[in-house]
């Protein structure tokens, strides 16, 4: 038991029992040594520390670190023999730069990167490496491999480094917010945001507000269809649902109705919508370009302008509400609010952090729900049987076009299955990420150094015939136990379907998003028979960061008796 620390910290690290109280530095050293052992195992004698070979130390350290870091089922139960079999990142198969450029720009996958996942999986297997500009990605495309990454993601997972977002925040002296901050800082922000967003009971308190917004959506559809040439068609349903998504999330965040579903959309909102589009598009370009180009090319300036507009609108809305709250307090009136009031009064975040977190919630909460709802309506319009079944379910639980309560939603399994199936066919975030910066990890028999960026190929797993029977079909019943045609319709690995991500870093808006989508879809089904336009061509998805329709979805809304 005389293992000694060999790293710069020079602590008195001795004995196996000391492993349980190791300082992170020592743990790093041991993991690095274990990694070296794995690399040297093919012939080169392992490093020796008194009493242990590095191989046996690796087993002890890895087991201990699994406990220390609180990881579940750490896949690295490396025995000495297993450690010998581990391969290095450089041994991974994958396309070179020329091949990637060919696929993206000659074969036309630049805006179909969700499909490229499947193509590359068939060429290289379920784990491969791809390099493009500053990106060096390890792609994993099986539920087992995703589970291995997630199990080793550490206590404060990072999705991806966003240096250009961070540069913008630094430029403007802003707080970092959820996407840019990491470690304890990120955890502090999430701990402040989670309680009112992720607890079912808390989110249920938002139901009356969401119902009001859904009511406005129904009126808006009525207006738009009555103005159309055939009196029933709503063209570009996604853009109508975008307004619904914006109104829904901002009514919760800002506790104010903005009027996005009114005849004339407020100027501020139009500016915000444009800024979000610009920022997301430019974000993809700016990250590829070297820093020096920012002074020469126009993209960085436009990216900064888009963020400026985005933050400006969010701050104006927040300040407006803060002034109202202050006026109420000055008049001795009690202040009742939802999200913003809660954040401001909880004193857990600085005002600068509230600004950026609210902006990020707004950013995450609009396209996601609106695109998912668009695809759900599109498929229900194509599948008369599914639409009939959903209509029957909703009307049996809520007759006479009554608004469902959150408790009643739990008696609508088919409604939930429709949203799940939509998110399986069109996961709005088609590929997630984990940047494992703190630990070296083992995935799929490969040993990866710290700071490896993993790309979790969620889209291709959702479409894999080995995971889902008739994977290309819209079959909501696969999510219903007992009513699916075969048992394996609903049997799948838990990491096959993670549209909201997974673990502590998973989507903070999941519950709110689900409630919004369930309310909107159930009310639309009560009021309308939704149909496709005659002779409408199939609509394919495309990737623009998110998975979105490649052309407008036009739907006919025929009022139900
Ligand atoms: C259909 C609806 C939605 C889908 C499919 C979705 C999906 C996702 C996914 C996949 C992630 C990454 C999770 C991970 O890394 O494991 C994420 C993160 C996030 N989402 Fe959502 N989302 C939706 C709606 C919303 C809504 C309504 C909001 C706002 C209320 C929101 C706010 C966020 C934020 C702020 C993050 C970053 C969380 C963090 O990094 O700590 N999302 N979402």
Automatic annotation (TrEMBL):
Ligand binding (heme): 507
Record key words, sorted: Heme, Iron, Metal-binding, Monooxygenase, Oxidoreductase
InterPro entries documented for this protein: CYP11_CYP27_families (IPR050479), Cyt_P450 (IPR001128), Cyt_P450_CS (IPR017972), Cyt_P450_E_grp-I (IPR002401), Cyt_P450_sf (IPR036396)
GO CC terms in record: mitochondrial inner membrane
Keyword Metal-binding: yes
Pfam families in the cross-refs: p450
PANTHER family in UniProt: CYTOCHROME P450 (PTHR24279), CYTOCHROME P450 FAMILY 27 SUBFAMILY A MEMBER 1 (PTHR24279:SF123)
Protein name: Uncharacterized protein
Species in which this protein is naturally found: Mola mola (Ocean sunfish)
Lineage of producing organism: Eukaryota, Metazoa, Chordata, Craniata, Vertebrata
């Amino acid at each position: 038991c005389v293992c000694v620390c060999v790293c710069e910290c020079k602590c008195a690290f001795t004995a196996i029992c000391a492993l349980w109280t190791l300082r992170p530095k020592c743990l790093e050293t041991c993991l690095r040594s274990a990694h070296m052992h794995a690399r040297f195992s093919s012939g080169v004698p392992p490093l020796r520390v008194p009493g242990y070979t590095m191989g046996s130390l690796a087993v002890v350290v890895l087991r201990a670190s699994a406990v220390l870091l609180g990881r579940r089922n750490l896949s690295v139960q490396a025995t000495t023999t297993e450690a010998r079999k581990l391969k290095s990142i450089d041994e991974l198969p994958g396309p070179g730069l020329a091949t990637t450029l060919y696929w993206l720009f000659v074969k036309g996958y630049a805006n179909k990167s969700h499909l490229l996942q499947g193509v590359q999986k068939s060429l290289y297997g379920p784990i491969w490496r791809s390099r493009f500009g500053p990106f060096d990605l390890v792609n994993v495309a099986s539920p087992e491999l995703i589970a291995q990454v997630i199990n080793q993601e550490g206590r404060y997972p990072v999705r991806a480094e966003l240096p250009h977002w961070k540069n913008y925040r630094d430029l403007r002296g802003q707080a970092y917010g959820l996407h840019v901050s990491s470690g304890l800082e990120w955890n502090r922000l999430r701990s402040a945001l989670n309680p009112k967003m992720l607890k079912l009971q808390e989110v249920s308190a938002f139901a009356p507000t969401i119902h009001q917004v859904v009511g406005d959506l129904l009126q808006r559809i009525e207006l738009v269809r009555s103005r159309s040439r055939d009196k029933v068609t709503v063209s570009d349903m996604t853009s109508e649902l975008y307004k619904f998504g914006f109104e829904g999330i901002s009514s919760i965040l800002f506790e104010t109705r903005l009027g996005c579903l009114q005849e004339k959309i407020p100027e501020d909102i139009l500016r915000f919508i444009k800024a979000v589009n610009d920022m997301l598009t430019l974000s993809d370009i700016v990250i590829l370009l070297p820093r020096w180009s920012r002074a020469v090319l126009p993209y960085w300036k436009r990216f900064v302008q888009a963020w400026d507009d985005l933050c400006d609108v969010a701050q104006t809305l927040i300040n407006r509400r803060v002034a109202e709250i202050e006026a109420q307090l000055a008049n001795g009136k009690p202040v009742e609010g939802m999200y913003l009031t809660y954040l401001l009064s909880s004193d857990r975040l600085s005002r600068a952090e509230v600004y950026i977190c609210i902006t990020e919630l707004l950013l995450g909460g609009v396209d996601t729900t609106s695109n998912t709802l668009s695809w759900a309506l599109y498929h229900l319009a194509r599948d008369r049987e599914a639409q009939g079944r959903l209509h029957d379910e909703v009307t049996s639980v809520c007759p006479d076009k009554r608004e469902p309560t959150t408790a009643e939603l739990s008696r609508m399994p088919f409604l939930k299955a429709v949203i799940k199936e939509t998110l399986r066919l069109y996961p709005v975030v088609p590929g997630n990420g984990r940047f494992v910066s703190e630990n070296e990890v083992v995935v799929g028999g490969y040993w990866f150094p710290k700071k490896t960026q993993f790309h979790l190929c969620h889209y291709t797993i959702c479409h894999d015939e080995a995971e889902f029977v008739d994977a290309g079909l819209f079959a909501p019943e696969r999510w219903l136990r007992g009513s699916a045609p075969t048992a394996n319709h609903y049997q799948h690995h838990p990491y096959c379907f993670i549209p909201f991500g997974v673990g502590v870093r998973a989507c903070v808006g999941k519950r709110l998003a689900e409630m919004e989508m369930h309310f909107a879809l159930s009310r639309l089904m009560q009021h309308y028979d939704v149909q496709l336009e005659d002779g409408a061509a199939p609509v394919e998805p495309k990737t623009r960061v998110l998975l979105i329709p490649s052309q407008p979805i036009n739907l006919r809304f025929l009022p139900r008796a």
